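Human: Note token order:
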Amino acid sequence: MKVLVAALAGLLFGLGLILSGMVFPAKVQGFLDLAGAWDPSLALVMAAAIAVGLPIFALARRRGVACAGVPAQARGIDRRLVGGSLLFGIGWGLAGLCPGPALVVLGLGDPKAVGFIVAMLAGMGLYELLERRAG
């Protein structure tokens, strides 16, 4: 049953990304181009995502565990979080994709997504390597 729910959630997420235009790098870059021809339509998508997510996060905080049984952990804002957020934002702005939409674009058969996903996996691997060395 969990697999079916996960598959349906993934399908719904992917369809939402396609319908919202977040799988089109030009649309994302238009949203991020505040000094040029700014396209504010993705702000509505983000607002809707926040509206859906807030009650779920509040429920998880009260329960102490997320729906998948993972402990809900609140951590403060530190240099690592800010640095990771900056790297994520820079990558999103340059490529016009973030991990979720990149997987959808790959599933749609766009070969440009392959390079993004290879770079993403390389970055994740580098992070793991550095964490092991530091730990």
